[in-house]
Design a protein that fits this description.
Layout: E1 38-44, H1 62-69, E2 72-78, H2 84-93, H3 97-100, E3 108-109, E4 114-115, H4 128-133, E5 137-141, E6 157-158, E7 174-180, H5 186-189, H6 213-242, E8 249-255, H7 270-273, E9 274-280, E10 289-291, E11 295-296, H8 300-308, E12 333-337, E13 347-351, E14 355-360, H9 378-388, E15 407-411, H10 429-446, H11 454-461, E16 474-476, E17 481-482, E18 486-491, E19 498-502, E20 512-513, E21 518-520, E22 527-531, E23 541-542, E24 546-547
Parallel strand pairs: 1-7, 1-8, 2-10, 2-11, 5-6, 5-7, 17-24
Antiparallel strand pairs: 2-9, 3-4, 8-9, 12-13, 13-14, 14-15, 16-18, 18-21, 19-20, 19-22, 22-23
Amino acid sequence: MPQKMKRREFIGLMGAGMAVMTLPGCISKENMVKERPNILWISCEDISPDLGCYGYNEVRTPNIDRLASEGIRYTNAFTVAGVCAPSRSGIITGMYPTTIGSMHMRTRNKIRNINYEAVPPSYVKCFPEHLRAAGYYCTNRSKTDYQFNPPITAWDRVSGNWGDWRGRTEGQPFFSVINLTITHESRIRVPLDKDPIIDPASVTLPPYYPDTPVVRRDWARYLDNIEELDRQVGEILERLEQDGLAENTVVFFWSDHGRGLPRAKRWVYDSGIHVPLTIRWQGVIKPGTICDDLVSFIDLGPTVLSIAGVEIPPYMQGQAFLGEQKAPLREYIFAARDRMDETYDIIRCVRDKRYKYIRNYQPEKPYAQNIQYMDLMPTMQEMRRLNAEGKLKGPEKLFFRKTKPVEELYEITVDPHEINNLAKLPEYESVLKRMREVHENWKKETKDLGHIPEKEHMENMWPGGVQPKTATPTISPNGGTFNSSVTVKITCPTEGASIAYTTEEGKKAHWKLYTREFNLKKNSELKARAIRIGYEESPEVQADFVIK
């Protein structure tokens, strides 16, 4: 049976040289501090654990390595999708994309004439809202990409350049996300006339890639970008140090999914979903810790809430792996692949620490379907050329089979590249049966929406192809003149809507999250807006009372 996921009953209502810690769990609850720490996420894009701290010696990453040496390095961290937008939708909500309808890449696609936003159940929120409600200052620099527009209530600030913690009030705890884009897939192939710094002849390629100058060049450029990423990480950490905040700030470093190369990004093989995750929490996490606990990236939000001392909402499928609300260890992680840009497929996977099970629901389709954006990568073009000429050999040919097996099973500990499918071997029958059952139960428990045709799925979310609209909020009292102050209440009839308000003017006005009635002591231009995820934002409304 699959691992029981904490608070899952609620879902039924939805129609190198480091010390190794031992299990059960790398950090005990007793080590957690009581004060509210600051929290910083340094996120990047499209890299696997190809870093010095993970024993990868073909790239230099001194800043990330140092961060890992000062905290904990997770060796079994996984995203829920091998591509950015579905993965990020799971991170921001603590929910599986296949549960909340955000599994297709992307919800706006001109080639397929698709135009909608994912509309999760009404009770689902972006988890920073819960932090804001608890007094945290929350910023994002600057990528969101959630499969829905980020609601105004999710962040105090979403900005470019150096948008971070510096805008908060004195003493206010913060949660800041800084996303670095240098390692994105597109940065490998653009500009193509730029020679790699790392010698392409020195790199080691996975066995499923043909060993050609074109492929080696792409891999070397990928590693170049990681080295530049490390430099940028160092700048952020130095900025934190300069501000005197390093000691009381929990720092996460992670990637949204695996490397942006063929048979990695967009896939549920480990090359697409196995990612780096390091966390520094001074005074709580022992420096140099290595942890092999299974972590799913839907656990990131609940873990931040747990560290901050904020109660984890019962609807979240993710579970905390740090903090006072730390949950029992995971037995399995799950991931999915659905439509990738213009190409449809349905693939699900289950992984424990030893085995990976993959279920191909459209086995009649080849792996190497054409995807316009993916096919811009020189490595992909090289692989297609060699395949057409009959020059691929051994594992290089696997990706170009005309059909897929219904089931795939890999023993990751001895076959990390997932080359040898064990699904039909009698000696692995019991493992196959167990993993298959885990998968089937997970699908049922999480109410996997992947088998609903997308046109029907769109109609369920945006009836008639029209985006639902959040109702206009109401500010009470409605009119009147008051002496000194007035108690203000703001409501919105749209189920699940969140409300933001401000008394400031202009485009740079700070919109606060409304959580309860508040006392307004001076006459001001009080305005409010409401938004439910996936809905159109409400019209802005202004209070019409007067305070003398």
